[in-house]
Amino acid sequence: MSNIDWSKLRKAADIKAEADAARLAPLIAAESEWVEQERQFVAEQLEAIEDGEEVPGTEREWRDYRILVRAWKAGADGYPDSSLRPARPS
Question: What are the b/e assignments for 69-84, b being 16+ CB within 10 Å?
Answer without folding.
Answer: beebeeeeeebbeeee
